[in-house]
User: What shape does this take?
Amino acid sequence: MKEMRGPGLNLRRCDAMTKLARRRRAPGLLAFEGDEPVGWIAIAPRTELKRIETSRATPRVDDEDVWVIPCITVRPSARGRGIALALIRAAVAYAAKQGAPAVEAYPRAGAARTGDDNAYFGTEPLFRRAGFRVIRQPVGKPRRNWVRRVTVRVKLPA
Assistant: This one.
């Protein structure tokens, strides 16, 4: 793996990504069209994602040892073709192979369209299409610059 460092790159972030890429278990999955990467989804045990564990927007629902999907992205030129849905399904299958009892995500509540800055959480309807169900409505009061997120979960066979 070629290490990329240079002007404008955050070295701590680069080091963290290099460390993630070298782990035995993948931190996420990529979608390709031919040789071209068109999408990414992160998937990992909740306990490995400290920002999720400590976030007021994504508090634990219960003590289930869930895996989580904190982000998903599809290249703008590849959107509208089912890639995000395929990535979610592939991530759930990957977590199941790793022994996860359930997978959670924290998508934007509702179905309203949004700008790309808020799209990486995914949307509630997208996760519903992938078989997730809402297990908690948004927490906290609506505030400016706060994306209201639901907690969705899919249970996996033992």
